[in-house]
Specification:
Elements: E1 4-6, E2 21-22, E3 29-30, E4 34-36, H1 54-71, E5 82-96, E6 104-118
Bound molecules: zinc ion.
Zinc ion binds near residues 9, 12, 51, 52 and 56.
Amino acid sequence: MSDYNWCHNPDCHKIETQSRVRGSGDNKVLRTVKIKVNRFNGYQSNIWNYFCNNSCLFQFLIKFGQEVANLRPVTKPSETPIKLKKEKYESYRYEWNSDINGGTQRVPYQATKTTIESK
Ligand SMILES: [Zn+2]
């Protein structure tokens, strides 16, 4: 595997930035961005090894999204077993009361907090 990739957005070379300008004299071009491959922790599927920035990644996905989806078809939903944990706790709300100074009073109430725990 080479140490560099070319940005995979087929239109990368059409984006007008100084960093893409190559060539000399009257033979200037905008060139696809060359990306240094990052093998951080041996993890080679870093998406930024293939796209020079967010904009190029999304241009690619807009153009080839259907083909990308076809690589890993999803024909049914997946499920993750969980436990729902409900906890009661004391909270407060503020009520208007014209009889008191400032007009609002803090009123306690029993609230419920639901958290998802993995099994
Ligand atoms: Zn690019």
